[in-house]
Amino acid sequence: MKALGMTIVAALIAAGAAAHSFASPDQAMVAPATVPAPAGLDGRGLFLKHCGYCHLPGGTGSIQLERRWGKARALLAERTDLPAEYVKGVARQGIFSMPPITRVEVTDDELDKLAAYLATADKTKAHGR
Length: 129
Ligand code: HEC
What we know:
Blueprint: H1 2-23, H2 25-34, H3 43-50, H4 52-55, H5 60-69, H6 84-93, H7 108-119
Bound molecules: heme C.
């Protein structure tokens, strides 16, 4: 009987400790990093999803860029002159008629991937190969 009592007390203490550590601010800050992030889209997929409706052929971004700078600058996915830092700056601040893209829409990690994709000089990327 005594042993059973001790077991119950030990179980209650363990439960209390678990509840406490779960609720502590330290745990709360560590927890998200231990949850594996979903695989998600690659840079090209992110570009198509978040920028494509303006920056694929016929989109307002493509039309506006062609009007302003000429055909060679119209399609972002065919450009070889877009440093990643420039792409990220434009995305976060917007430019003329392009609205800023918030971190809610595209996280910093996603924007890193997306900008790296646009900075690549590989022409085949525009055709999805
Ligand atoms: C709502 C439409 C829209 C969306 C969505 C959009 N853009 Fe744009 N973007 C534009 C327009 C319009 C311009 C041209 C602005 C101007 O010159 O008037 C532009 C211009 C740019 C430029 C400047 C290119 C240059 O030659 O200087 C970059 C870079 C760019 N966009 C990147 C992006 C990226 C990356 C995304 C997705 C995260 C994105 N845009 C999403 C409309 C959009």
